[in-house]
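Whether sequence alone determines local backbone shape is best considered at the level of individual chains. In the encoding step, the backbone of a single protein was reduced to a row of integers, each denoting a local shape. For completeness, the protein is quoted in full, as a sequence line and a line of structure tokens.
***
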Amino acid sequence: MKNIKQLLLIALISVSGMAVKAQQINANEAAAASGTKESFLTLADFEVKSKVTGAQVVDARTAEEFSQNHLKGAINIDPASTGYAKAVDALVKDKPVFVYSIANGRSVSVAKELRAKGFKEVHVLPGGIANWIGSGYPIVSTTKKGLALSSAQFKTLSESSELVLVDFGSKYCGACKKLIPVLDSLEKQQGFKAKVIRIEAYDNTLLLKELKVSQLPTLVLYQGGKQVWRKAGLSSTAEIEKIINTKRHE
């Protein structure tokens, strides 16, 4: 019986592998048929390939975001700006394009449009510049930063109450803005026992790297100065309340 189970497991793994391989082949064939070159690069590959002579690195954020920080050699093409169409027309279709935004919202939309316009090779920075910064890759900063916390200062903050909820976000991040009213409503509740601290990611790039925060927003709960919960992306009031109450009574 044991041997039969092992054989069945091996068969299932083989079938799953064949299915995945078939999907990859179909995706590659579809890309080839459309005349575009689609690929999913790692951060390391993105860094290497975007430095090749002729590579066009496009920052799809606003001019204000771009002035705050950007990848070396990038040009700013904001899809919401009046000069967007002209800036896109200035790109060379036969040369690779590397697009990024704060996460993957605007960059994916721009990449899709570029491919539709006939650009042969378009790559999107996985996880956006938030992931880039959180993973320790270099950026160019052109403006004076706001409050930047040292490791020691952050440690003091994380230990400043029994339960400390840290919000790593940015004023430039759409998803981060959606989290603000959630946290505001919790802070106004009389029975909410966690201290909320908000960290501006772009002012604290070294801290993000050290704490391995690679997506915005990211919530981290500290209890007695130790991390006990973390979640990247949006969280609901009920979800946060539940985790806070659970940790309080452990």
Remarks:
- The CA atoms of residues 53 and 238 lie 50 Å apart.
- The two ends are 43 Å apart (CA to CA).
